[in-house]
Amino acid sequence: MSDFIQIRPTPERRVEFARWAVAQDPKVRTVASATFAVPAALFAGMPEAVLIGATVDGHRYVSPEEDQEQAGELLGVATAAAFTETPAAEPGEPLPKEPAPGAVVNDEDAPEGVFPCSGCDREFTTERGRDTHQRQKHPED
Question: Which of 2, 22, 39, 91 is the most exposed place for a label (fewest CB within 10 A)?
């Protein structure tokens, strides 16, 4: 593992990053025209303002504030309305005894032989199964 982290700041922050880099002891060196090799020990203490939008070891830098915003979007953020709305069903309420019309709860409940093959005498429980069979076994039809 390298002791250096390669950072490519955004063009807008490159001058600010370079000012920070040359103020370090020892100075932070460049490894490409716009990429700096920052010692791993210095990375944790870097000002976040120079890192925003940068590429750090090939990955886009995500600030802690941006990370929290993204986590809120992914997980959903509770609003005051969510606590005042009445839920559609009470928690702990038993599920209905009758399944929805056409629902298949398990294999025993599946309808048997409702889709006959036009090329032979086989019957299928699903239209998809019958169509697949016809394409494979009766391609001439």
Answer: 91
- Cα dist. 70→55, 77, 93 in Å? 18, 11, 34
Long-range contacts of 16-25 (CB under 8 A, 24+ apart): 16/49, 16/50, 17/50, 17/54, 20/46, 20/47, 20/50
Query: If you average pLDDT over every residue of the chain, what do you get?
Result: 78
pLDDT in tens, 93-136: 665 566 666 565 555 555 565 888 888 988 888 888 888 898 88
* Structure confidence at residue 6 (pLDDT): 94
Enclosing H/E stretch for 135: helix 127-137
Q: Which residues pair with 123 in a beta bridge?
A: 116
Query: And the tokens for 51?
Result: 């890192």
Helix (H) / strand (E) element for 115: namely strand 115-116
